[in-house]
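From: lab user (bench 3)
To: helpdesk
Subject: output format question, protein + XIL

Hello, I'm new to running complex predictions and I'm not sure whether the block I got back is the full result or only part of it. Here's what I submitted:
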Amino acid sequence: MQKSFIKGIVIAVGGFVFLNCSSVNKVKSKSDVPSLKEAFKSDFFIGTALNTAQIEEKVPGAAVLVPKQFNAVTPENIMKAEVIHPEWNRYNFELSDKLVAYAKKNKIVVNAHTLIWHSQLPQFVRRIKDADSVRMFFNEHITTIASRYDGQVYSWDVVNEALNEDGTMRRSIFLDKLGDDFVVEAFRLAQKAAPNTKLYYNDYNIEQPKKRAGAIALIKKIQAAGVRIDGVGIQGHWHINHLPLKDIEESILEFSALGIDVMFTELDLSVLPNPRDIVGADVNQRAAYEAKLNPYTAGLPDSVQTQLAKSYEDVFRLFLKHKDKISRITFWGVDDGQSWLNGFPVRGRTNYPLLFDKEFKPKPAFYSVIALKSKGK
Ligand code: XIL
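Helpdesk reply: Thanks, we reran it on our side. This is the complete output you should expect:
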């Protein structure tokens, strides 16, 4: 009887130890995945764009991953004028307030995006014909939103995408009705409304020499007017076959010589064939679907996966080289399933541009980026 009692205890203890080991292992295998924000904590903020479902924590995978991996978030759409300011006298702060609360709860900073942009404008603004009404929208929009979130968000992209590829000012309702100085004016209003918020200019392809020169001239103009600008965001929508490393490095040096922070604010690396004539990230550009433009619906071939990992390694090596000048790297999305590149510039494709796959698992590119820190490469 004693024997079987002891045997029982041995089995029970063994079972307990076994169970315990397996649960420890489970926990261990989860925490075995390193954290980007931890790995780069002495270098720069590591951010991600969040969509509505993610802000509302309706995506379980993202709800677990985001606080673990990122210490900065950018709203992918909800702070754009068409969402936050749908009618003349109506603002919709519900989702932005949720974002701020979510970030606070998780000790994450919010990089608000964006006050003045020609795209994703509400209908009422598109219909305005006279300059006075555009001016009124412009003043009220910036002042109301920037002051509401001052001290709640870390930064604002005050103006997004004001430049053409050749460095000249892009035609838009703001340029047409308010003239060349609208960018300076936007920063002046933001500075008044949000004295505790960092103010940035954000654009794509401004690592390219001509557009970069336009951005530098614009930033100098803001500074010469005695208006505050704290940083510049290079969006970073690139392609694994055309990663412009030399231009990126020159841009980091030239922008930081202006005495402002440099950030990469919307990083993703497309792996899909580029339809003809489309460069950069002009959200209004579209191309028709063709099967040959969507080759990886059944999964990413190892060769491309490896190239993606190598491209991320190369660009992060460069970021680390200039970490004293770079304050943040933000990915444009948490996981491949969410990426806007599944719908842009061709709808209905399967792209793989981020560090986490659509099951929220880290990809080889994630490990190649992390390895730069762990091996001190
Ligand atoms: C994109 C969003 O990701 C999409 O969901 C939306 O349909 C269009 O805009 N440059 C920017 C971002 O500054 O705001 C854009 O985001 C991508 C290009």
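A quick orientation on your result: The two ends are 63 Å apart (CA to CA). Let us know if anything else is unclear.
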